[in-house]
Amino acid sequence: MLSIRGISRTFGGARPRTVLRDVSLELARGEYVAIVGESGVGKSTFLNLVAGLDVPDAGSVNLDGVELTALSDNARTLLRRDRVGFVFQAFYLLPHLTVSQNVALPLALSRAPAFAAAERVEALLAAVGLSDARSAYPRELSGGEMQRVAIARAIAHRPLLVLADEPTGNLDPEAAGQVLALLREQVKREAGAGILVTHSAVAAATADRILTLTANGLRPR
């Protein structure tokens, strides 16, 4: 379902720095993996390459038969909009939209029927414990609340691939448990695939397998 073969990424000009070198990963449908590793080893860069937000200097990323590295910027954007859900560390909520409107954004972009979209948004807000905050704006939320909105938004359109970058970093243990269960359920229910990047041993334990990213690639933990 997801095939990542030999991707590498180097940054910089006069003094280049190789962040990833020859990294490969194969995920079957319904598989959910956690990636751990030291800070600065390239975990977020890896997710950006998998999502098509960036392109590798070498190697390939194939999602359900589509070669992302062969697509134009616009084509990658459209594929990501329809088939990928990304939970960013920085949330990236739109400040002029309410909580409900932020969560509904992927559904609006995919032109989902209004009634079905409203039902989906309400169900997700209930699942992350934010039903009472549906009309609030991001500036009125705590960091943990914004994180939960970002998670709900990432899976609102039932993406084929779920990517989560430290999704529980701002959450208390109870909220973290809820959203981790929600992310796993999304992958299993939609028969897609999921990659969780985390420093948390508790979060990593919810995945089917745990991999460690090092300078030499991914290895089983």
How would you describe this structure to a colleague?
This protein has a single domain (30-56, 83-220), classed as Rossmann fold. 36% of the residues lie in helices and 27% in strands. It is built from seven helices and ten strands. The strands form two sheets. Strands 6-7-8-3-9-10 form a six-stranded mixed beta sheet, sandwiched between helices. It is globular. The relative contact order is 0.20.
Element layout with pairings:
Layout (H helix, E strand, L loop, with lengths): L1 E10 L5 E11 L3 E6 L6 H9 L6 E6 L2 E2 L5 H11 E4 L11 H11 L4 H14 L15 H13 L5 E5 L7 H18 L2 E5 L3 H4 L4 E6 L2 E4 L1
Parallel strand pairs: 3-8, 3-9, 6-7, 7-8
Antiparallel strand pairs: 1-2, 1-4, 4-5, 9-10
Helix pairs in contact: 3-4, 3-5
By CATH, the architecture is named: 3-Layer(aba) Sandwich
CA-to-CA gap between the ends?
22 Å
CATH fold type? Rossmann fold
CATH superfamily: P-loop containing nucleotide triphosphate hydrolases
**Count of β-strands:** 10
SSE order: EEEHEEHEHHHEHEHEE
The poorly predicted ranges are none
Q: Work out the helicity level.
A: 25-40%
Mean pLDDT figure = 94
Main beta-sheet strand count, sense and barrel state: 6 strands, mixed
Classify the secondary structure makeup into a structural class. alpha/beta
